[in-house]
Amino acid sequence: MSQTLKSAPASTGDAARQLDVRATVVDVIAAIRERGDAAVREYSERFDGWSPSNFRLEADEIEKIIATVPHQAIADIVTVQERVRNFAQHQRDSLHDFEVETEPGVHLGQKNIPVAAVGAYVPGGRYPLVASAHMTVVTAKVAGVSRVTACTPPIRGEIPAATIAALHLAGADEILLLGGTQAVAAMAIGTETIGKVDLLVGPGNAFVAEAKRQLFGEVGIDLFAGPTEILVIADAEADPFVVAVDLLSQAEHGPDSPAVLITTSESLGRRVIALIEEILVDMPTADMAGPAWRDHGEVVVVGDVDEAYALADRYASEHVQVLTAKPREALEKMRNYGALFLGEGTCVSYGDKVIGTNHTLPTRGAANYTGGLWVGKYLKTVTYQEVTDQAASAALGELCGRAARVELFEGHARSGDVRAHKYAGAPLTWAPRSL
Fold first, then answer.
1. Closest by alpha carbon to 243, among 258, 227, 228, 262?
2. Catalytic residue among 210, 298, 318, 344
3. pLDDT tens-digit profile of 13-42?
4. I need a surface site. Which of 11, 263, 349, 377 has the fewest CB within 10 A?
5. pLDDT, tens digit (0-9, with 9 covering 90-100), for 32-70
6. Is 96 annotated in the active site?
7. Domain limits at 403?
8. Nearest to residue 152, comparing CAs of 253, 57, 261?
9. Is the distance from CB of 229 to CB of 257 less than 8 angstroms?
10. Are residues 209 and 260 in the same domain?
11. Is it the case that residue 12 has pLDDT exceeding 70?
12. Is residue 269 part of a domain?
């Protein structure tokens, strides 16, 4: 039986806000469909105060911007991207093309083909999310994507130099200083100067997420990303200070980021609550982390670790951090999560920034049915078939004729009949008189 030490108050106004977001996005997409670049420029100026002569950065501009980034920051970007590239390459190597002869003369195959063009969105806003450049662009290039168009917004009228450096070093083919719905829509629809893409990837605010939702089907998307989530499973031996710090590390993403602790120890739960209040007093990002913890923070005490795993699976959180005596048990006992972080030596922030796995992960319960962004998302797994044996084709034709007529698909049945007739002499009761 569980005990709740802290619950999240019921949210109000979400539906109205979502309707406002949806209406705005509808208007922006419609305008870009109708007026192309002119509408992109209009909305960029309105929302970001940004209307340069060209949104696309030329090679010399990129070089000048990168030159302003400290050498250590560049070195760190290179190090992290190599880790992301290495892990993505292992993922790619695990996907194999194959062909099998399932019966004499029947050859079936599978190929993994990269999508041709990807639009990668890297948010700006309060935080320049440099790491998102690694996760979206590096992984696309490992998959073999030919053209990656990257968009990132100016931040209060300034160029986010570190993000531009990361996008360039990751291998982006085009970099545009352009943000928000107008960026996502321009890449998905195509304009006079911005090429249409086949797949949109990357996180963003509510407007970006809604734009991806509305454009899905016209283009592919990685997933519908909501506010960042963290769930910590902790037993009595966990360090409450570590738990408190790690919960706030994700709460600082924004005031709507859920931070949940499930623990087998009431005393640890109460200590974590107290420590969080102390830490927030002088935390530089308390204006984000504080409201997130106040409005979306939860602490639940359960009877044992197995109950904690079961409850965590019901949350299906984006990030699940396991601070227990045997953290690897979670690999066998849990099913629903975006990513697991096992043991005190691992934290969600490593996954966000430096360890090499992809940080674009499912939120709002989507972990019940999907994992996060990975190299396979940039690939189309397709099949092919070839029947080289006439007897095999005739047998398939007879089977196809019977199976199709059960479903009343006479045209399908006749495709099978023709082969059974041509290769095995089966009669054609419906053949034209001229044959």
1. 262
2. 318
3. 677 888 999 999 999 999 999 999 999 999
4. 11
5. 999 999 999 999 999 999 999 999 999 999 999 999 999
6. no
7. 389-435
8. 57
9. yes
10. no
11. no
12. yes
The closest of 18, 40, 289, 25 to 153, measured between CA atoms, is: 40
Three-class DSSP labels, 344-389: CCCCHHHHHHCCCCCCCCCCCCHHHCCCCCCHHHHEEEEEEEEECC
Q: 318 catalytic, yes or no?
A: yes
Question: Of the residues 168, 253, 296, 319, which is catalytic?
Answer: 319
Q: Smallest Cα–Cα separation from 112: which of 154, 146, 144, 150?
A: 144
pLDDT at 414: 98
For residues 90 and 215, membership in a common domain is answered with: yes
* CATH number of the structural domain spanning residue 149: 3.40.50.1980
How many domains does the chain divide into? 3
Distance, CA of 179 to CA of 162 (rounded, Å): 16
Q: Which two tokens stand for residue 342?
A: 């096992």
Q: How far apart are CA 14 and CA 17, in angstroms?
A: 5
- CA–CA dist 250, 293 (Å, integer): 10
Report the percentage of the chain scoring pLDDT > 70: 99
Q: Among 230, 229, 235, 228, which residue's Cα sits nearest to residue 308?
A: 235
Half-sphere CA count of 1, side-chain side, radius 13 A = 0
Q: How far apart are CA 247 and CA 260, in angstroms?
A: 7
pTM of this prediction? 0.94
pLDDT class for 225, splitting at 50, 70, 90? confident
